[in-house]
Amino acid sequence: MIRKAIFFTLFIGTFTGVAFAQDSSAYELQRNKINTLLAERSARFGQYEESLNARTGIFGFQTKRDIKNSNEILRQIAINDNNIFTELKVLLDYKDLQFQEVKSNVDHSQVRIDSYKKTIRDLQVKNDELLEYNQKISKNMNYLQLFLGLFVVISIVLCLIIYRKNKLMRSKEPQSGIKVL
Questions:
Q1: Is residue 9 a contact partner of residue 35, using CB atoms and an 8 Å limit?
Q2: Residue 14 — pLDDT band, cuts 50, 70, 90?
Q3: Cα distance between residue 119 and residue 113, in whole Å
Q4: How far is CA 170 from CA 142, 164, 167, in A?
Q5: Residue 80: how many other CB atoms lie within 10 Å
Q6: Residues 51 and 70: beta-carbon distance below 8 Å
C-alpha cells in the first residue's frame, strides 16, 4: 500500500512536470523534491496507521513499545513536514525571484520603449526642421535664380545698348584717319 502511494505520487509528479514544461529546470527540480517529500509523508502516515492498529500486548492492548514506535513515526512525519515547509519556502522564493526578474524585464523594456519613443519624437522634430529649412533654401534658391536671370538679361541688354552706342559713335566718326573741322 505504501509503495503504491509513493509510485502514485511520483507518477502524478511526473505528469505535472510535463504540464509545466515552460518552468525552468531548477523550479522543476524543486517541485519534484517537494513531491518526493509529500510521497514520503503519505507513506509515513500509512506506517503510522499500521502502528496504531498494532496491538502486541496481552489481551490485544498496545504495549509501551507500540506507543514508542507510533511516536517515532509521528516525530519523523513532523521532521518531514518541516523539510516540506523549508523546500516550499525555497520554491516560493524562487517563484518570487522569477516574478522580480519578469518585472525587471518589463521595466527595462518599458524604459527602452520610452527611449525609442523619445528618439522617434526627436527625429520627427529634426525632420520637420530640416524640411522647413529645405523649403527656405528652395525659396531662396528660386529668388537667387530669378535675380541671376534678371542680372543676365540686364547685362545682355546693357551690353547691347553699349554696343549700339559704340557702333553709332563709330559711324559718326570719319572713315579716314583725318578729322575734319
A1: yes
A2: low
A3: 10
A4: 41, 10, 5
A5: 18
A6: yes
Burial class (CB in 10 A: 0-12, 13-18, 19+), 30: buried
CA dist 98 and 78 (Å) reads 30
- Which residue is it, cell 517537494? 34
Mean pLDDT of the chain: 83
**DSSP H helices in the chain:** 2-19, 25-53, 64-172
Phi/psi of residue 7, nearest 5 degrees: -65, -40
Cα 68 to chain centroid distance, Å, stands at: 59
pLDDT at res. 5: 46
pLDDT in tens, 113-138: 999 999 999 999 999 999 999 998 88
Sign of CA dihedral 140, 142, 148, 154: negative
Domain map (residue ranges) of the chain: 2-114
